[in-house]
Design a protein that fits this description.
By secondary structure, this protein is mainly α. The protein is about 70% helix and about 0% strand. The chain starts with a helix and ends with a helix.
Length: about 180
């Protein structure tokens, strides 16, 4: 969905057409769910976090800047909700079942994303610190540019690049071990 279409749908929703919001939910529910699932490793949590993202986005839709991509704004909301959830629940790799790890979907992924989604690497990804893991997911699974990731996270592009480089380096070391 292009930025103009997104802005038109948001304008309709803000004018009272609540049903138009379903178009945005339908368009973006999969990538938001995938982010939540890959960060938590739990499908029930991912469902709840996805729903919370869309509820919060609807509640604060009036804050959306139509000069930005809606998806970037929505992803930022999701990013913050997921971070809070993980912090609150002190998630760690031991809480994530092997069944959840094995069920990660590999459809329509770039070659780099397929590498990360490989079963062994998926298991290792859950051991990567949350702050780096989310950047790797955004870059190689969601295929965001460094600039988009910086906009979502509030970090500089150079900090994002360095963190992703360190994350890939950490994964390489874990694979060798």
């Amino acid at each position: 969905m292009d930025q103009k279409t997104e802005a038109e749908i948001v304008a309709r929703v803000l004018k009272g057409d609540r049903h138009a919001y379903a178009l945005l939910v339908e368009e973006y529910k999969s990538p938001i769910y995938n982010l939540a699932y890959r960060m938590t490793g739990n499908s029930a949590d991912a469902d709840d976090l996805t729903q919370e993202t869309f509820i919060r986005a609807y509640k604060y839709l009036w804050r959306y800047d139509s000069q930005r991509k809606f998806f970037t704004w929505l992803y930022t909301i999701s990013f913050n909700i997921i971070k809070s959830h993980i912090k609150k629940n002190k998630m760690n790799a031991k809480q994530i079942s092997e069944k959840d790890i094995l069920s990660l979907d590999q459809n329509n992924l770039s070659p780099e994303a397929r590498l990360i989604e490989d079963q062994e690497i998926s298991s290792l990804m859950l051991l990567v610190p949350e702050k780096i893991r989310i950047l790797l997911i955004m870059k190689y699974h969601q295929e965001f540019s460094f600039e988009e990731i910086a906009q979502i996270t509030g970090q500089s592009v150079s900090a994002i690049k360095m963190s992703i480089y360190r994350g890939l380096d950490l994964l390489k070391k874990m694979i060798k071990d």
